[in-house]
Design a protein that fits this description.
heterodimer, A: 327 residues, alpha/beta, Rossmann fold, 7-stranded mixed sheet, globular, B: 324 residues, 6-stranded parallel sheet, two-stranded antiparallel sheet, 43% helix
């Protein structure tokens, strides 16, 4: 079965199927029930599954995220929805101090099969407390897995994969992707957690990216192609674990690297990727690696300012062109 | 008051085990065999022993970083706890946890958690899972009065009451959050009253009296099952030793410590037996010998334990060992 649906519908379908197939799966978060989900992902699920399994919570991020951990420890397969990544900081203690550590500090006795989904990213003029891309922070933490589905197929597949995973998995859904449309093949074999995918083959430069920046990078690649520059575009899909193998294979082929990340530069995933390339494939490089990231400001409200802060297609094209000019 | 001598003897033996275990820990700490933070439970033994007496094998227990006593009262072998404190592979957390992170899946002992109030949200989720799966179990969650100042305390009490979850909240109020006295940190110092504000049935109990704690916990668990709602017990207690081994105790009077020592739970139990005039007495010497032998074996076991291979340092970060 395949067809064109929205990213939002793909996530919803995955939740729905998982809940039908496994009584241990339930959804919990702010306004997931009666309201239908702040991004309407869970719309209709309350009617289908009832309030015992589609659980509206008070505004207690730490409380209900911790409750997700407790339920996971006690045999359930909870999906916790946090409205945005900015709000997840209120639950940072539970995610970093408990979910990520439980298995290790108990000497392997207690694993936490918890899935946490949240919206991330800017572009909706939501200002400095609703727009940031902090998935890179979470990727710092051993014990967590960090997924960033960009495509409709991945939005669907990754939720299923995350629910099968015995350890805590955080899924970051870019808020501007919920309305995007794409093909969904439910019979397709999902690409495993931790594997990047090459969306466009190219011989001249590797553009390494994830999330919504994938589409900006692909658009930039088409423009570059008209100028005779063939970019290889890699969707990381998972920020932890990172797929070093795919990254290094591409670097060894193109010898030039541009990283596109909606997170800030300082102490970021883009910095981590550069460091790994430096460690593992330095002599393959023909030019210094470059990055297109968000400008280091708390996100502004005004549209022209916010757009100026975000990675854009023209910035990616310019950065790639400059990289190609290097000898 | 009717006192069953066997019951009294069992409580006394368990409290004595904890007391002597903690004293041994202090000694091993001074010999540098135990390192890191070490928080002793001396003075508070009646709470863990009383509550665990009420707990069923299927119930879950969540404790704090001052949890050696809870672990022992739950039946985790002293040797497994001691080996953990010495950082050995035979320790109950394979040397990865230490004093603050004792775990035991078999006995449903979920830590050993060292973020104050961090265990309360877990209790909410554990109890939620039990209710969803229609299991007749209770989650017992211990925490200190310091946790009351944390947001997670309030979020969790609200969720537990709102969702009517089978949780026994046990607040061990020893008067000090590390060095900060309750009256210096809380506008309302009656913690049971705070819990009541969330529509939770809450009461205060003498945390030095093991019979009172056990009776209160048994009643609470019956009530939780009958009403499908949480219950909150505030146990008034005192720690006789410093907060941790790094604490010079500048914040409290020696006289205050001495005053509380008059209420030592072990002495109190002996006095209760005497006034009960049941004619039966504890065989203290025999109990001391028995406990000494358990601790002696535990120390020997821990000292003879093996060190986890450094090659296994990254083991248990993930369920399958994922390449980073």
């Amino acid at each position: 079965m395949s067809g064109t649906i929205t990213y939002r519908e793909a996530v919803r379908a995955a939740i729905q199927e998982a809940m039908q197939n496994d009584e241990r799966v339930f959804l919990m978060g702010e306004d997931v029930g009666r309201y239908g989900g702040s991004y309407a992902v869970s719309k209709g699920l309350l009617e289908q599954f009832g309030g015992e399994r589609i659980i509206d919570t008070p505004l207690s991020e730490s409380g209900f995220t911790g409750a997700g951990i407790g339920a996971a420890l006690n045999g359930m397969r909870p999906i916790v929805e946090i409205m945005t990544v900015n709000f997840s900081l209120l639950a940072l203690d539970q995610i970093v101090n408990t979910a990520a550590t439980m298995r290790y500090m108990s000497g392997g006795q207690f694993n936490v099969p918890l899935v946490i989904r949240m919206a991330t990213g800017g572009g909706n003029q939501l200002g400095s407390q609703h727009s940031h891309s902090m998935e890179g922070w979470y990727a710092h933490v051993p014990g967590l897995k960090i997924l960033t589905p960009a495509t409709v197929q991945d939005a669907y597949d990754m939720l299923h994969l995350a629910l099968k995973d015995p350890d805590p998995v955080l899924i970051f859904e870019h808020a501007l992707l919920y309305n995007s449309k794409g093909e969904l093949d439910k019979q397709a074999v999902p690409i495993a957690i931790g594997k990047a995918s090459v969306h466009r083959q190219g011989k001249d430069i590797s553009i390494i990216t994830y999330g919504i920046s994938l589409f900006k990078s692909l658009e930039a690649a088409e423009i570059l192609s008209k100028e005779g520059i063939e970019a290889e575009v890699i969707d990381l899909r998972s920020l932890r674990p990172l797929d070093d193998e795919t990254i290094m294979a591409s670097v060894s082929k193109t010898h030039r690297v541009l990283i596109v990340d909606e997170g800030w530069k300082s102490g970021s995933v883009s910095a981590e990727i550069m460091a790994r390339i430096n460690e593992q494939a330095f002599y393959e490089l023909d030019a210094p690696m470059q990055r297109v990231c968000s400008i280091e400001v708390p996100f502004p409200y005004a549209r022209h300012l916010e757009q100026a802060a975000l990675p854009q297609v023209d910035k990616i094209v310019t950065a790639a062109q400059k990289l190609m000019e290097e000898l | 008051m009717q006192i069953d001598i066997n019951q009294a003897s069992s409580y006394y033996r368990q409290m004595l085990l904890i007391r002597r275990f903690e004293e041994k820990c202090m000694e091993l700490y001074s010999h540098e065999l135990i390192r890191g933070f070490l928080h002793l439970y001396i003075g508070e033994e009646a709470i863990a022993v009383g509550v665990m007496d009420a707990a069923g094998a299927e119930d879950a227990v969540i404790a704090t970083y001052r949890e050696h006593g809870h672990a022992l009262a739950r039946g985790i072998p002293a040797k497994a706890v001691m080996a953990e404190l010495l950082g050995k592979a035979e320790g109950c957390s394979r040397g990865r946890g230490g004093s603050m992170h004792i775990f035991d899946a078999k006995r449903r002992f979920y830590g050993g958690l060292a973020i104050v109030a961090g265990g309360l949200p877990l209790a909410v989720g554990m109890a939620l899972a039990d209710r969803m799966m229609k299991r007749d179990r209770v989650t017992i969650c211990f925490f200190g009065e310091g946790a009351v100042a944390e947001g997670e305390f309030h979020e969790s009490l609200n969720l537990a009451a709102l969702w009517r979850l089978p949780i026994l909240f046990v607040c061990e109020n020893n008067g000090y959050a590390m060095g900060t006295a309750l009256e210096r940190s809380e506008s309302e110092q009656n913690i049971a009253k705070k819990a009541s504000a969330y529509n939770i049935s809450a009461s205060q109990v003498d945390g030095m009296d093991v019979f009172a704690v056990a009776a209160s916990a048994k009643e609470a668990i019956a009530q939780i099952k009958e009403n499908s709602a949480p219950v909150f017990i505030e146990c008034l207690t005192y720690r006789f030793r410093a907060h941790s081994m790094f604490d010079a105790e500048l914040y409290r009077d020696k006289a205050e410590v001495e005053k509380w020592k008059q209420k030592d739970p072990l002495t109190l139990l002996k006095n209760q037996l005497e006034t009960a005039a049941s004619g039966s007495q504890l065989d203290e010497d025999a109990l001391e010998k028995e406990v000494a032998s358990v601790i002696g074996e535990a120390v020997a076991f821990a000292k003879n334990g093996t060190l986890e291979e450094v090659a296994d340092l990254e083991k248990f970060v993930y369920s399958e060992e994922v390449q980073q």
